[in-house]
Specification:
Elements lengths: L2 E4 L2 E4 L2 H8 L5 H16 L3 H14 L1 E2 L4 H8 L4 E7 L3 E7 L1 H9 L6 H15 L1 E11 L4 E13 L10 E2 L11
Parallel strand pairs: 3-8
Antiparallel strand pairs: 1-2, 4-5, 5-7, 6-7
Helix pairs in contact: 3-6
């Protein structure tokens, strides 16, 4: 079993599956306190740090398939992720849902750099080209965040230097049997 260090905590490959098996309800309060109150208080600002944390999380929880992104975002309580445009050099996503709306209601300056970093690294790993992401627009009233992932198709990853992460097998929700 491989161990990785993230923020001082030891995490094993089964961290995700164990967490999903616990079947705990997502807490908006806990996430909001950590992201929008505690981290900025500890660091003085969270924006830059959360982007790089998102990239690191994407390496640790590497998604094998593009289709896994919406499910992972839902499971992590980051919101409902939907790709609205996809080209080889640019992908555009919207992020919506109760958590997004709540965070924007509590703080109209709430950032979504963690999600941007995760998307950038995931697209980079899946495409084989360098990628960066940014929040393009925020509609506070509708609770919609638009994120653009820019892929540099002229800058391929050097797989000899760049370690390929072990991919994560997502736990898919069990469909309830109908009687």
């Amino acid at each position: 079993m491989r161990l990785a260090i993230l923020g001082g905590f030891f995490m094993t490959n089964n961290f995700y599956k164990t967490s999903m098996a616990a079947n705990q309800t997502n807490s908006t309060l806990a996430v909001t306190i950590l992201r929008d109150a505690l981290i900025p208080e500890l660091t003085g600002e969270a924006t830059g740090i959360l982007y790089w944390v998102g990239k690191r999380l994407a390496r640790q929880f590497a998604l094998a398939k593009d289709e896994d992104l919406p499910l992972f975002f839902e499971q992590t309580n980051w919101g409902t992720l939907k790709r609205i445009k996809g080209k080889a050099n640019q992908q555009v996503f919207t992020l919506t849902g109760e958590m997004v709306a709540t965070r924007l209601k509590l703080n109209d300056q709430a950032d979504f750099k963690l999600e941007c970093g995760f998307l950038a690294e995931t697209v980079q790993n899946q495409s084989g080209f360098m990628a960066e992401a940014l929040v393009d627009s925020v509609n506070i009233k509708k609770g919609i965040v638009t994120i653009i992932v820019q892929v540099d198709t002229k800058d391929p990853l050097d797989f000899e230097l760049y370690e390929q992460p072990e991919t994560l097998e997502l736990v898919t929700p069990k469909k309830e049997a109908t009687e």
